[in-house]
Amino acid sequence: MNIKKLLLPISLLFSTTGCVGIGPNATYYMGTTSFHYDPSYSPYMVKLNGSEIGGGGGGMNTSPVKIGLQEITWKDSKTGEIHSAKNQVIITKEQLKGQKYLAAHLYPDDTVEVMTSNNWPNPTEKGTKWLNQLKNNR
């Protein structure tokens, strides 16, 4: 069999697969974590589109991240209640391009802010202020 005839279907398969990763449903694999700013409970099972991500800023997972509208959920460690982002969280290709880490910031009003970076993620100033205010009002 001619080697060119053998390689043609294989090369077409790989080029098609590569296009799937570039399109609107592209999946990026990144280090993921979350930060929580409500002292009344600890979250667990923080998920981004059904995939568990790390927590507390210290735990890190490698998770699939897709472009577009995100579903972010987490559970209350005291009650098991499931929380979900009350705001629309949308991730753009520009946010992910060339970045290594994604952090989901879970605020006390159940809104979520997603930030990407090349360095280990840190808590947000907004979240830290909110956490300190809630701790001082106890």
UniProtKB/TrEMBL annotation:
User: What is the protein name stated in its UniProt record?
Assistant: DUF2846 domain-containing protein
Q: Which residues form the signal peptide?
A: 1-20
Q: Which keywords fit this entry according to its UniProt record?
A: Signal
Recorded source organism is Acinetobacter dispersus
